[in-house]
Structures are given as structure tokens and as C-alpha cells.
């Protein structure tokens, strides 16, 4: 199968702050902050591999809001959000973004982020909660669903240039 | 064909690497073929550069009966072997219904139902694989479902290679929704034995979803991306399994919202009818049973279009069956179909009135009562007519084969994607004998989720991570055991102090990896190296493993979910 090469061992547990499950919004934000620094680096180093040229260089998710991840304006309609999600899926889903190990891992991570953003923004209730939280904070939040803690944490490892 | 080409790698061999005779030049991506291995019929198809082409055997058949006969020195399967009449498959020399037997242990009710078949299915009811044998020259010759499937797949591969004039190695196969990961490894094993490399194992209705996405995209090419989403229910019922999916489709992207499935199908209907017609049990491999099976099958087919059917078997049985009688006898089967569709709609959080299309495929979708039930639940008067009931799955698999092989179509016919969802939940044993879900059913794939656990005993230095998969039943017994491993080196501490993080990762090719790390309060990195285990690790689906672990360790190495104060 395509995955499981021992050289690309990556573990999901190095996220720093207290691991909580389920996480309160505050702790979630705190937990993801350290990995974000390296998250942006992944795109630059992953771009060395030829297949990834097909994936347009996307916004670094380090500072991106969910709207920026989906590449839609804040006032986007739910129809816009659905279209944007599908358009990005056609580019970033591991099935289309490449089949070798390196890219399938990074595109899987990328796609999970897009999907998480979509899950929040396509649900009117979750979206309004998110919008309110964004207004209250100076810094936009990136994470919308539970279970993402380890996923972001894992990026911290996968995203190193090995 | 040369004789030695029929040989199959031994069952203990895990990879088909050395078996592939010639690989394609590395510059050209090999287009993976799509295979629909049905309980009763198989087909194989490939993207030919502009459309999907279903391959035919030398007798010009697109749908090939799934069976292998062990009559002579060399076993022969349905691809090359022409039966003069249907009863010839029922002498005990042929093994069929492999898909209902593969990866199941001898306590499984589906295996027990197979004991009515003419070949030998022997069970000791202790949770090991059943003993399966074919009658050859009045002797029982043992085999395994994997071996039978591999022999059949080799024939299919050779047929495809002859037809395509190239080596065939990469395949996309369709599988039932209800298959456990252990069963999927057995399918992969059979493929490896036949020299095939599995790119994807697609739940059957998701293959149909991809085909539907392509059709929708073709009919509405101009408004692509406008987001006009169509909700479809896909109902697929063949001889062995019934599967349902709800999918949202727009712009060539089909997102699977929910999946449901069970091992119920035409074989159950057939056995119900045989019992109804001839209640007294008969020798399974006798010629009268074979004649009854063939006659009943014919009558069931006839009842799909007519109100009654005549059954004559020898001079003993002469009966007219009418459709209402047929429906009464199989009431339970139809109820289960209804339950699966209802559950799938509920899991997708959609109402029947939201559904745009109902797609029905598989042999049993021709049964009027099945159509009625599905249409009723989905509140639809019509069934979508664009998908061929018997060819849809293999066409979808061939499309997926082209998409995952990285083939680009200049006309955009391959700008397709199925976003898969998990058919079964995965989790670990914790909180006593409970199944603690880590990744729930119907989670988008790729997926990654984690949970925190802690120890149950003071000074507990080791913990057992026992991984299960299932529909999410509360106790572990209701789920399939996938494997287990031990975490060692937990620092000595009171119970409830160490934090054990269990993370599960399912990648786009559906491979499941489980990570476990030990964390201590106030320390941000794991105190011992993280353990990564590819699941499943159980190698024969041994039903006794869980009991053995219990006998050996009791609750000494147990885990409970970590309750934290906010």
C-alpha cells in the first residue's frame, strides 16, 4: 500500500500544552500555537518534490483563518463555501494530489485542514460561533473541530524537512 | 495459456512483488484496472483513454461466474471454465461464494449458513478459520477462500493481460461496506497471491458514487463549480451483501456522507426459499439439492417480472410459487434492507424528501419488493436510470483506478473524486470491557483523531492497547478485534496520573495506524518512545485472542478514558 514507510515516522504527541480531550476553545488555541511556526515551512520544503507543483502554493495556514483556508471572503454564502471546498478537494485531496508517500502525507494534512474548515463554515451554528470568536480576538483562530489537536501536533513532526 | 501461469503464491506469502512478470516502464503510469469481485459474479474493467471498457473473456462474457473447480490437476475458475449447465457447479468439486467466507471465523453465522453449500465447510465453533474443501475424485481436497479467490483473480488477470496486451498489476477492487479491516487484508492477500497490487479497496456503493459523479458532471458541465449539489442514496444488493450510501455530488466530487451494510443478500433469499420448498434437510452435495437450488434460483428470477413461478424438481417437488408467498418468506431480509437505508439516511442527517436520486444496483435490486422498500424510505417514486445494475460497480472501480493512477483526461472526464468516509468505527478497549470509539463511523477519510487514557492501577508500568473495529457497539464483544500491543515503561505513579494518548490515523488508501504515547503531567514530550502499529495485526482473525489476553492479564494492564477537570 501507499503508506507506512518506516523512514517517515512521525508521531502526533509533541504538541506542547496540556493535552485535553475534549478541549475548551481556549486550550485548543494554546495547544496549536507552537506547531504553527513550522507548518508554513512544510510547504516550502515539500515543494521540492515534482508532483507537488500541481498544488498551487497556498496560504500558509499558520495565520490563516478558516475563510482564508477555504479561500473565500468572510461574507461567502454557504453555496460559495461548498463550491470552494469542492474546488480545493479537487486539488488537494491525496487521491488527486499525488501518490508517493511524501505528498500523500502533506496533502492528507492539507486536506484535513480544508475539511475541518469546511465542517465549521458549512454549519451555520458553528460558523456563527466561530465568527463571534474571531471578532473577540485579535488573532484569528484556525481550528474548528475537535480531534484536531493531535493532527496539528503531528504536523509539527511531519513538516520537518527530513 | 501456459499451465504454470495458474500457480498461485503460497498463502503465507504476503506480497505479490516477485510475482509480477513485467512491470510497465516507470515513465508511463500504469492504469489500474477495476475489479468487482461479486459473491456470484465478477467483472473487470479499465479506462481505455476516453471511457470505461468492460473486458470480456473468450466466451464474450462481461459478467463471469465466481467459482473455482478443483476437478483435475489444475484448478480452473469461471473465467476459462465453461459449465454445460448450472448444476455442474454444485457437485462439490467447485468452491463458490468465496466473498461470504473470506476472513470469517467458524463461529460466524454467515459461515454456518454456508454449510448448506455442496462443498465442505466444516466448523469447530472455536473461533478459528473454517475448514473448506472441494470434492475431487471422491476425496476432500482442502483449500482456503483466499486461495480460491487468488486462483480466480489469476484467471482474471491473464484475461485482462491478453485483452490489453500489457502486464496488469495495479488494481482497484470493490468490497462490501461491512467488511472488517481483517477481511480487507485477506482480500489483499488473495490479490498478492495472484500477483496483483491493490491501490484501493472501495466500498461498493462509493464506486457507484464516483460513476454517478461523472454522469452528473457530464450532464451539467456548464454549471460546474456552481455548487448545485445533488443528494443520492445508493443501494447495492447482490448475492452476498447489502450496502447503502448517501452521497452529496457536485462538480465531479462525490462526498460520502454515510455508509451502512450487512452480509445479507440473494444467497439468503435463495436459502430461505429452498427451506420453504423442501423443509426436510437434505445432503448438501446431493444432485437433488443441486437441482432444487437451480430451480429455486430460476423461480426467484422469474418472480421479479411475473406474479408466479412453477418449480419442478425431479418427481418429488412440483409447486407454484407466487410473489406474495416469496415476499412473506423473505420478510426478514426486506426488513433488514429497510433498516439499512433508514440508518444510512439518519447517519447522513438527511430526510427522504431531500434526496434527489435513488440509485439501485446489484442483482437483488431487480426484486420488486426491494425496490418498493427503498423507494418508500427515500420517498421517491422513481429509481435513477443512468446506472446499469450489474456493471455500475466495476465501472466505478475502473474510474477510480484511472484517477488514482494519476491519469489526466483532456476532456475533463476524469476530473472526479470520491471523498470517502469510514464504514466502521475504530477504537480501543477501555473502561472495563467497553469499546471506546476513537474514530467514529462515517468520518471523512483521511482522518486522524486521538483520545487520552490513563492507568487503572497504582504503579501500573504497562498498558495494553487492544484495538477494535465495528459499528460502535458498547461492549468490545460486539466489535471485531484488529490487534493489540503493549505500552511499557510507564513511570511509577498513582492510578489516573500517567496520560496515555492513543491516536489513530487513516490515510487516503484506508490504511490504519495506531500511535500510543505516554505523557506525564507537567512534561510536554513523551517519556518513552512513541509506539506506531499498523493495524490489523491479528493474522487469522482468531476469535480466542481476546479471551487469551483476558486470561493472561485480567485487568492488570487496563486503561480508562482520562476525565479532566476544565
UniProtKB/TrEMBL annotation, chain A:
Signal sequence extent: none
Enumerate the spans annotated as J domain.
65-134
Q: What SUPFAM superfamilies does UniProt report for this protein, alphabetically?
A: Chaperone J-domain
> What is any Pfam family matched here?
DnaJ
SMART domains, per this entry? Answer: DnaJ
Region annotated Disordered sits at: 1-28
| Matches recorded under InterPro entries | Diphthamide-biosynth_chaperone, DnaJ_domain, J_dom_sf
Question: What protein name applies here?
Answer: J domain-containing protein
- Species classification: Eukaryota, Viridiplantae, Streptophyta, Embryophyta, Tracheophyta
From TrEMBL, chain B:
Where does the record place the region Disordered?
1-31
Pfam families per record: HSP70
Q: Which UniProt keywords apply?
A: ATP-binding, Nucleotide-binding
The entry lists its GO molecular-function terms as:
ATP binding; ATP-dependent protein folding chaperone
UniProt xrefs under PROSITE patterns = HSP70_3 (PS01036)
Q: Per the similarity annotation, which family is this?
A: Belongs to the heat shock protein 70 family.
User: Which PANTHER family does this chain map to?
Assistant: HEAT SHOCK PROTEIN 70KDA
Mind telling me what this protein is named?
Answer: Heat shock 70 kDa protein 8
Q: Which organism is it from?
A: Microthlaspi erraticum
Q: What is the lineage of its organism?
A: Eukaryota, Viridiplantae, Streptophyta, Embryophyta, Tracheophyta
Amino acid at each position: 500500500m501507499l503508506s507506512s514507510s518506516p523512514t517517515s515516522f512521525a508521531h502526533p504527541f509533541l504538541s506542547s500544552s496540556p493535552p485535553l480531550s475534549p478541549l475548551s476553545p481556549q486550550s485548543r488555541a494554546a495547544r496549536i500555537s507552537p506547531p504553527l511556526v513550522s507548518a508554513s515551512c512544510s510547504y516550502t520544503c515539500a515543494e521540492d518534490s515534482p508532483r507537488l507543483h500541481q498544488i498551487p502554493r497556498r496560504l500558509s495556514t499558520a495565520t490563516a483563518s478558516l475563510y482564508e483556508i477555504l479561500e473565500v471572503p468572510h461574507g461567502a454564502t454557504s453555496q460559495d463555501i461548498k463550491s470552494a471546498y469542492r474546488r480545493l478537494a479537487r486539488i488537494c485531496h491525496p487521491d488527486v494530489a499525488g501518490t508517493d508517500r511524501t505528498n500523500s502525507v502533506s496533502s492528507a494534512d492539507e486536506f484535513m485542514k480544508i475539511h475541518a474548515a469546511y465542517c465549521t463554515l458549512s454549519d451555520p451554528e458553528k460558523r456563527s460561533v466561530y465568527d463571534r470568536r474571531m471578532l473577540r480576538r485579535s488573532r484569528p483562530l484556525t481550528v474548528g473541530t475537535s480531534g484536531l489537536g493531535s493532527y496539528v501536533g503531528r504536523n509539527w513532526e511531519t513538516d520537518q524537512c527530513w | 495459456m501456459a499451465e504454470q501461469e495458474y500457480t498461485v503464491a503460497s498463502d503465507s506469502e504476503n506480497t505479490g512483488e516477485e510475482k509480477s512478470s513485467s512491470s510497465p516502464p516507470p515513465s508511463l503510469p500504469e492504469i489500474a484496472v477495476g475489479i468487482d469481485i461479486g459473491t456470484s459474479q465478477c467483472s473487470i474493467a479499465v479506462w481505455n483513454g476516453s471511457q470505461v471498457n468492460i473486458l470480456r473473456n473468450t466466451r464474450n462474457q462481461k459478467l463471469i461466474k465466481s467459482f473455482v473447480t478443483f476437478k483435475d490437476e489444475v484448478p480452473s475458475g469461471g473465467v476459462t471454465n465453461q459449465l454445460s449447465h448450472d448444476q455442474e457447479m454444485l457437485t462439490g468439486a467447485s468452491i463458490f461464494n468465496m466473498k461470504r467466507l473470506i476472513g470469517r471465523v467458524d463461529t460466524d453465522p454467515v459461515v454456518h449458513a454456508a454449510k448448506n453449500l455442496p462443498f465442505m465447510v466444516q466448523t469447530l465453533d472455536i473461533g478459528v478459520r473454517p475448514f473448506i474443501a472441494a470434492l475431487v475424485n471422491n476425496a476432500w481436497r482442502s483449500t482456503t477462500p483466499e486461495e480460491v479467490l487468488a486462483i480466480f483473480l489469476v484467471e482474471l488477470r491473464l484475461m485482462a493481460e491478453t485483452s490489453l496486451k500489457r502486464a496488469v498489476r495495479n488494481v482497484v477492487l470493490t468490497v462490501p461496506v461491512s467488511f472488517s479491516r481483517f477481511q480487507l487484508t485477506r482480500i489483499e492477500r488473495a490479490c498478492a497471491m495472484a500477483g496483483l497490487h491493490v491501490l484501493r479497496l472501495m466500498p461498493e456503493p462509493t464506486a457507484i458514487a464516483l460513476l454517478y459523479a461523472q454522469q452528473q458532471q457530464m450532464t451539467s458541465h456548464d454549471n460546474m463549480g456552481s455548487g448545485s449539489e445533488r443528494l443520492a442514496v445508493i443501494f447495492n444488493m447482490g448475492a452476498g451483501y447489502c450496502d447503502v450510501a448517501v452521497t452529496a455530488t457536485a462538480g465531479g466530487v462525490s462526498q460520502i456522507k454515510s455508509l451502512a451494510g450487512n452480509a445479507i443478500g440473494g444467497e439468503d433469499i435463495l436459502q430461505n426459499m429452498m427451506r420453504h420448498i423442501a423443509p426436510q434437510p437434505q445432503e448438501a452435495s446431493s444432485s437433488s439439492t443441486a437441482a432444487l437450488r437451480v430451480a429455486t434460483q430460476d423461480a426467484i428470477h422469474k418472480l421479479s417480472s411475473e406474479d408466479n413461478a412453477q418449480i419442478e424438481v425431479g418427481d418429488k417437488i412440483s409447486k407454484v410459487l407466487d410473489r406474495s408467498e416469496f415476499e412473506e418468506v423473505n420478510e426478514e431480509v426486506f426488513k433488514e434492507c429497510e433498516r439499512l437505508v433508514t440508518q444510512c439516511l439518519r447517519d447522513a442527517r438527511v430526510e427522504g424528501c431531500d434526496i434527489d436520486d435513488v440509485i439501485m444496483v446489484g442483482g437483488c435490486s431487480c426484486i420488486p419488493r426491494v425496490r418498493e422498500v427503498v423507494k418508500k424510505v427515500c420517498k421517491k417514486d422513481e429509481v435513477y436510470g443512468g446506472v446499469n445494475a450489474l456493471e455500475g460497480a466495476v465501472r466505478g472501480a475502473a474510474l477510480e483506478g484511472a484517477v488514482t493512477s494519476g491519469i489526466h483526461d483532456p476532456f475533463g472526464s476524469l476530473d472526479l473524486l470520491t471523498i470517502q468516509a469510514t464504514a466502521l468505527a475504530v477504537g480501543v478497549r477501555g473502561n472495563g470491557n467497553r469499546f471506546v470509539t476513537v474514530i467514529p463511523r462515517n468520518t471523512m477519510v483521511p482522518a486522524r483523531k486521538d483520545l487520552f487514557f490513563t492507568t487503572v492501577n497504582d504503579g501500573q508500568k504497562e498498558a495494553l492497547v487492544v484495538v477494535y473495529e465495528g459499528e460502535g457497539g458498547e461492549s468490545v464483544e460486539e466489535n471485531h478485534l484488529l490487534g493489540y500491543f503493549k505500552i511499557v515503561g510507564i513511570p511509577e505513579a498513582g492510578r489516573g496520573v500517567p496520560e496515555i494518548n492513543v491516536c489513530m490515523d487513516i490515510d487516503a488508501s484506508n490504511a490504519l495506524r495506531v500511535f500510543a504515547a505516554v505523557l506525564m503531567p507537567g512534561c510536554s514530550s513523551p517519556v518513552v518512545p512513541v509506539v506506531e502499529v499498523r493495524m490489523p495485526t491479528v493474522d487469522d482473525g482468531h476469535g480466542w485472542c481476546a479471551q487469551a489476553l483476558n486470561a493472561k492479564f485480567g485487568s492488570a494492564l487496563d486503561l480508562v478514558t482520562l476525565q479532566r477537570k476544565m
